[in-house]
Design a protein that fits this description.
Distance between the termini: 43 Å
Number of domains: 1
CATH topology: Rossmann fold
Largest sheet: 8 strands, mixed
Shape: globular
CATH architecture: 3-Layer(aba) Sandwich
Structural class: alpha/beta
Helix content: 25-40%
Strand content: 15-25%
Radius of gyration: 18 Å
Number of strands: 10
CATH class: Alpha Beta
Number of helices: 9
CATH superfamily: LmbE-like
Order of helices and strands: HHEHHEHEHEHEEHEEHEE
Strand order of the largest sheet: 3-2-1-4-5-9-6-10
Length: 262
């Protein structure tokens, strides 16, 4: 068998396995028996500091409340994200903000330490990414939707997909959206999470990323990483679900697509 044929067979095998793995409804709706098998390890991959919080910040508290462990894997350190700061100083500030946000949410940060805007997805980078991801032994991984305008989002998603194909222990893969219509495109959800009750905690976590806020003299926010359409999309996804606010996801599977309303 050729290496390409073998890789294709393994890919199809992983899709088949993934279709029977844990899903969001199982994670959030099935009562835990406080047994080890009920508690899952979840990793959320973001291209930059604040991306996991923007796309999944309302879902994370609900997962933790259900008894699961959540880690946020930051692909880059947001090195270009503070005007007037060197890459080194900006990265240090933004990594500290990540620690504060993770403390609010009750999660653990993991840093890949690629450079914002200069990320690379060669074999060495893929090996480093997979080493850190597999070390978490995740049951579920969330990643950026790959049809995205930002290269760092694209590459972190591609590396996650590659890890999903090659993992020695299969995990369920979900995609999340950020700044839909500006960054994420053609996003058609399969799963929804009602974040009405957890929205305030999401905003508290986002507020930890102080370097990304532009504030007027009267103390009002005029721009931040959250203002690129997230409030509108939360409202829209909520309308689709029939609640006040929701976050939406796409489950990576070869079959069984369909809206799973939570």
């Amino acid at each position: 068998m050729t290496s390409r044929g073998k890789a294709r067979r393994e890919f199809i095998k992983n899709i088949s396995i993934a279709s029977s793995l844990v899903s969001l409804p199982q994670l959030l709706h099935v009562p835990l028996q406080q047994g080890a098998a009920d508690k899952k390890k979840i990793v959320i991959v973001g291209g930059h500091p604040d991306d996991p919080e923007c796309g999944c910040g309302g879902t994370i508290p609900k997962l933790i409340e259900a008894g699961h462990t959540v880690s946020l894997l930051y692909f880059t350190n947001g090195d270009e994200g503070i005007e007037g700061k060197t890459h080194e100083k900006a990265a240090a500030i933004r990594k500290k903000e990540c620690l504060e946000a993770c403390k609010v949410l009750g999660t653990k940060p993991i840093f890949i330490n690629q450079v914002d805007g200069e990320s690379v997805a060669g074999n060495p980078q893929m090996e480093d990414f997979e080493k850190k991801l597999f070390a978490e032994n995740p049951d579920v991984v969330f990643a950026h939707w790959p049809i995205d305008s930002h290269k760092d989002h694209q590459l972190s998603s591609v590396l996650t997909i590659q890890a999903w194909m090659e993992t020695p222990v299969p995990f369920t893969l979900y995609y999340y959206e950020v700044c839909t219509g500006n960054q994420s495109f053609l996003f058609h959800p399969t799963d929804y999470v009602d974040i009405t009750s957890s929205h305030a905690l999401k905003l508290r976590a986002l507020a930890c990323h102080k370097s990304q806020h532009i504030i007027t003299d009267d103390g009002k926010y005029t721009a931040d990483m959250y203002s690129c359409g997230h409030p509108s999309i939360e409202d829209f996804r909520g309308r689709e679900l029939g609640v006040a606010r929701a976050e939406a996801f796409i489950r990576m599977t070869g079959k069984g697509f369909g809206k799973l309303i939570l």
